[in-house]
Amino acid sequence: MTSAESTIEKVNKNLARRYRAEQRFRLYGILSVLFGLSCLVVLFTDIIGKGYKGFVSTEIYLTVDLSSDDLGISDPEVENAFMQADFEGAIKRALYARLDVTDRRAKRALNALISSGASYALRDQVKRQPELLDSSHGFWLLADDDVDTWYKSVDSKSPFTGRLSDEQLTWLQTLDFSGELRTALNTTFFTSGDSREPEMAGIMGAALGSFFTVLVTLLLSFPIGVAAAVYLEEYAPKNRWTDLIEVNINNLAAVPSIIFGLLGLAIFINFFEMPRSIPLVGGLVLTLMTLPTIIISSRAAIKAVPPSIREAALGLGASKMQMVMHHVLPLAMPGMLTGAIIGMAQALGETAPLLMIGMVAFVVDLPGGVMDAATALPVQIFLWADSPERAFVEKTSAAIMVLLGFLFLMNALAVWLRRRLERRW
Amino acid sequence: MNISEHTAQAHADKTVGEPLVKNAKMSMRGVNVFYADKQAIYGVDLDIGRNEVIAMIGPSGCGKSTFLRCLNRMNDTIDICRVEGKLMLENQDIYDPSLDVVPLRARVGMVFQKPNPFPKSIYDNVAYGPRIHGLASRRTELDEIVETSLRKAGLWDEVKDRLHGPGTGLSGGQQQRLCIARTIAVSPEVILMDEPCSALDPIATAKIEELIAELSENYTIAIVTHSMQQAARVSHRTAYFHLGKLIEVNDTEKVFTNPDHDLTEAYITGRFG
Ligand SMILES: Nc1ncnc2c1ncn2[C@@H]1O[C@H](COP(=O)(O)OP(=O)(O)OP(=O)(O)O)[C@@H](O)[C@H]1O
Ligand SMILES: [Mg+2]
């Protein structure tokens, strides 16, 4: 038997090939992980690189004369006294004085450097501190968005000048040189609603809109989803009808979200004649969308409760409802909550169905409840990304960062809840 | 005699020995059980006497668990399972459609093969039954029930310092005794045990056997076991099942020394099983 190889020889011959195959297999895995990671890194550097500037805004230092006569305030105690006061004029006069401008045309060019929102901010501040009246004080006032964009790029090789004229640029350089320009934390961005003026536009309105929408979604979809899952798992007879229901729930989970938007438009707005653009309708539509997810994950969580626990409860004479309420639901809760939070994260990031029910409207006021017209974070991103003003680019990225921040928070909450509530048996 | 002849005989014969007793606690007549179309129990007649420990033995798959689970209607939880025949607990028809299983299971408790404490504290495990049945009106009363049940189960001394620790943190044998304490906390009249010691070591097993002997003073116990020695040690009567039929019922001593039926003898002498 010289030609025949022994088993161990055959094995050894194949061994090298097997090792190589194994190594290749590992390599494929590492490559795919690296690919995913690098995509993430590119995405984040791009967004954060553009977006962090959205969190600061440019301000101009001006010494404003707050004489009551010039402002037109006869008695600060009178209601509306500040509403009609001419803070805009005061700011303009301070600006002309600072840069020695007398010419009408030049004055107009100079006015364009200050945001139209600056006078409101000044008014609110003086209203809070009436003792500032009748004297001159220095204020940092919000600059126009063109100034903002220019100032943020002033250190680069080719600063963005946009619509700024050479005359305006000279003024700005003068101010910059003497330290009368600065960037400061953009509180407006975090506290106000949308605006046509980029420097006045904020994320708060959209964030509140998203909050109310997701709240409605959570309050509706979690109880309904859990109840449906409990019925299907614990009570429903196993027959053709329940099989059909199961298949259809799985199908619903795969339906594109825009279809749910159309459905919501047809049912809630056209048929029930609810107002457009409100978080209540948005929440209802997103409830339809997230229900299948929640039902499926809740059923999986209920299925995972060991049968021995059910038998123990039933064997002691617990009724079916007691078994479910005392044992099955508490044990399934971590899984169900995780599913619900993932569903909510989906709902938070959803745009298409909200477009269909009009939550794409331009809303300046902060919504105060589920019946106020509102927009949502992803829709706000969509709107800003669509705006022509250059300054909205960084707002868009900043809004994306806020949205991603919320999503991370929710996912972290899901992980924490699962760890926290998970019990072993 | 080979196995197929045993089988033929099993189908032909009626139960030998003394399946019926006077003044029975539970009596079953003509019990047939089906899983979908497959029959698992064939026409069993059996009485369980008051304060008696009856052991059910037989080869794996012969239907011991199935029969035991009929006695408190645990088979209701299996959709495809269907039970025929007359099963009485004293004067109560167990399978009366109008009967509520909740009080039935309070009267006929069950201990399972695998210890299955709730993932709650030791105290809550034992207190669960009394709570859902409203057996205690005050906290002190509940404390008392918990203590007596744990004492009866021989677990009190081991756990009295950690009543509020998790029940799942106990050893396997302790967990099984906890499950027994949980069952007797609702003061059932009958306790069904399905291989209660199969997951335990000899010492824990000995403790549980001792416990069964003590409990038999107050309770009627039906125990399924694969251990012939255990059946011999704890039970008064022994029932031998084979392929879904009840072959022989006799006093335990007689079954293990001088069985009436060839199949029983073959099983206890270890020729198959
Ligand atoms: N849920 C079920 N569905 C279908 N058939 C079942 C089910 N449970 C038991 N059976 C069948 O019924 C017969 C009796 O099973 P059973 O569990 O009562 O046996 P056993 O005597 O308890 O066995 P073991 O000693 O192994 O526990 C077996 O043939 C088994 O396959
Ligand atoms: Mg069994």
From TrEMBL, chain A:
Sequence intervals crossing the membrane: 25-44, 206-232, 252-272, 279-302, 322-342, 397-417
One cellular-component annotation, GO: plasma membrane
GO molecular function annotation: phosphate transmembrane transporter activity
Entry's family note: Belongs to the binding-protein-dependent transport system permease family. CysTW subfamily.
UniProt keyword annotations, A-Z: Cell membrane, Membrane, Transmembrane, Transmembrane helix, Transport
Entry keyword annotation includes Mitochondrion: no
A Gene Ontology BP annotation from the UniProt entry: phosphate ion transmembrane transport
Topology in membrane: Multi-pass membrane protein
Name of this chain's protein: Phosphate transport system permease protein PstA
UniProt-annotated location(s): Cell inner membrane; Cell membrane
Boundaries of every ABC transmembrane type-1 domain copy: 207-414
SUPFAM superfamilies xrefs: MetI-like
Species lineage: Bacteria, Pseudomonadati, Pseudomonadota, Gammaproteobacteria, Cellvibrionales
